[in-house]
Amino acid sequence: DGGGGMEEMELMIGGLAGTICKVAALPSWDVLDVKTAIEDATHIRRKQQRLLAGTVELRDGQALGTLIIDSPAHLTLLLRTLEQADWLDLADRDWSQLLKAPTEAWADHEVVAAAVARCGWALKHASPEVQSHYDVALAAVRQTGLALQYASPGLRADPEIVLEAVAHCGRALEFADAKLQADRRFVLEAVRRNGRALEYAWDDFRADREVVLAAVGQCGCALVGAATDLRGDHEVVAAAVSQDRGALIFATGELRADSQFKAFLGSLPVPSTPKPELEEDDQPVVRRRSSSTFFFGRRRSEGNAGLSGLLGKDGALMCEMANLGLPVAPGFCISPEDQESERPGSPWSPDSVNGIVKEALAQVEEATGNFFGSSASPLLLSVREGSAVQAQGPCRHLSNIGLTDAIVDSWTSRENPRFIWDSYRRLIFGFASLIKQLDMEPFEQALLAVKQRLNEKCTLGRQHEDCDIPKKDLQELVELYKSFYKEQAGEDFPQDPYVQLAEALNVLHHRRHSVAQQEAEPCEVETSGSIAIVQAVVFGNYDSESATGVIRVRSTEGGLAQLGGEWLANAQR
Fold first, then answer.
1. Angle (deg, nearest 10), helices 109-118 and 134-143
2. Rg of the chain's alpha carbons, rounded to an integer?
3. pTM (two decimals)
């Protein structure tokens, strides 16, 4: 009994010319299941179908049992044009392509609903009527909190919609109806959902002790939005710092210099992981938690800026940028607690990497359409460290993880071969330097020799850079690099992508312990260790129209709030 004992419902599907088909449905079905059954019976595409019960159009996600009571039930089938069906396809695949569609597309409820499910910012382009639909606005703010600014005025006065938006982005409070912004009870609930909303509350609430305490209790760094006198209040700052040590930088200088407050900081427990269980050989038992990885990308994330104590500043801000709708390359953070749960020494192995990050890696693969270790459609990863407080020494960063001889040979037959060989060269060089810490002089001299040879051949006196090295010379460099690697490391360069990833994560694990052993000043915020940030590689070295760089929102000279930065063409970080 495929229906699990539930009684079937008979649906009579009709149109202008009479009955089109009959469908035997189950109450557990949703509207999309009904459309699938109609497609099987009539070959009318699901995305061309619009079903009405009376004058009310049924939405795909609605449960059939909550909509229809009588059996047989009569539903009306209206057909979309092929163009309208194509709009739905675009909304599912790449909503930005809908910007080229006629304005009618943005007045179509289902099309906009599909678009905002992919990116809340799409609500900006919807017709005023669709912007006033509750379910569309709710889907938009759940995907991107700042989409609230494009909802209708009536929905921006709806407490449930606004609280959902604030939970995803504190700044959404700025776009709420003025009556809600002036309601103390509402603001109190908003900062309990997301403490960072305090920064966008009215001045009266930023000076309200109860509101501020609620905000810093949810996110320690919400202290930045408190009034000056409260940022010098022992109880308020203590609550913030207890939640997130990094919040100390927002306290007033007078309080930070106070001897009693210094004593309080010294009494705070150092964050630690529970003592692991031991096996019979006195080695810790491996325990993994699915919550230890935090995905970000596709304009959403499982983390936010309020988790800097767990994910580090870099990881938390990466998640926040994804939440804000910025086109962040997909990836995930691995908390230091998770790195500690393996056996000491070398916590990561290819098997443990495959098991622990499997779910997060699958999300990255889905977001990019590429697959880690695949020759047909390879996904390359970068691994870098992020910490709650900037650690001493250079940041460790390795890109192009996942390239192997077999993948390179297969990929170069379909893609720009020069950039693939250049990426492989960079991987081997970085792996030898950062992971194995080999003597890099032979590698550097080989690269220099290739560029000098190219310079000598050039009759125009051109000085060649890395981006000017042709494919054939890059292939030779790769072979030289692999021979240098084997000579010094005593083994071949690893041809298993999971071995490469495990080795990179191990380096961050050892880095964590070396940082933890450093002595800290009595009143300084301590680090919580290194957080691993694993991210899909974006190829700035693809061709002359690609680049890598950095953008700053404040000037490095004087700290003025203005955009700046630098970039380098045909290069990779």
1. 20
2. 28
3. 0.51
Q: If residue 20 lies in a helix (H) or strand (E), which one and from where to where?
A: strand 18-25
Indicate the SS3 state at residue 304.
coil
Look at residues 299, 323, 121, 89 and name the one whose alpha carbon lies nearest to residue 137: 121
Mean pLDDT, to the nearest integer, of 363-392? 81
Residue 560 three-state SS: coil
Q: What is the DSSP string of 438-507?
A: ---HHHHHHHHHHHHHHHHH-TT-----GGG--HHHHHHHHHHHHHHHHHHHSSPPP--HHHHHHHHHHH
Percent of the chain scored above 70 by pLDDT?
A: 83
pLDDT at 558: 66
Contact residues for 141 (Cβ-Cβ < 8 A; gap 6+): 120, 147, 148, 151, 161, 164, 165, 168, 172
Find, among 368, 359, 244, 364, the residue nearest to 293 by Cα.
359
The string of pLDDT tens digits covering residues 143-153 is 888 899 999 99
* Residue 406, CA atoms < 13 Å, CB-side half-sphere: 10
> Helices (H) and strands (E) in the chain — how many of each?
22, 13
Structure confidence at residue 530 (pLDDT):
63
- At 398, list the tokens: 């390795």
Rounded Cα–Cα distance for residues 48 and 88 (Å) = 9
Is beta strand 300-301 parallel, antiparallel or unpaired with respect to 293-297? antiparallel
**Quick check: 537 and 399 in contact, CB under 8 A?**
yes
Q: What is the pLDDT of residues 275-318, one digit of tens each?
A: 444 444 444 333 333 447 889 988 788 887 767 777 888 888 88
Cα angle, residue 286 at apex, residues 285 and 291 outer, rounded to 5°: 135
Measured distance CA(216)–CA(186) in Å, rounded: 17
Specify burial of residue 370 (Cβ count, 10 A radius: 0-12, 13-18, 19+). Answer: middle
Q: How many residues does the structure list for the chain?
A: 573
Sorted by sequence, the CB contacts under 8 Å of residue 521 that are 6+ apart come out as none
486 — alpha (psi -120 to 50), left (phi > 0) or beta? alpha
User: Within a 10 A sphere around the Cβ of 471, how many other Cβ atoms?
Assistant: 15
The 8-class DSSP code of residue 62 comes to: S
Angle at 305 between CA 381 and CA 115, to 5 degrees: 70
What letters, b where the CB count within 10 A reaches 16 and e where it falls short, cover 150-179?
A: bbbeebbebeebbbbbbbbbbbbbbbbbee
**pLDDT average, residue stretch 132-138:** 94
Determine which of 71-80, 84-93, 375-384, 554-563 has the lowest per-residue pLDDT on average.
554-563
518 CA to centre of own chain: 31
C-alpha 259/C-alpha 97 separation (Å) is: 60
Is residue 381 pLDDT above 70, yes or no?
yes
- What is the 3-class SS of 339-375, one letter each residue? HHCCCCCCCCCHHHHHHHCHHHHHHHHHHHCCECCCC
Res. 414: pLDDT tops 70: yes
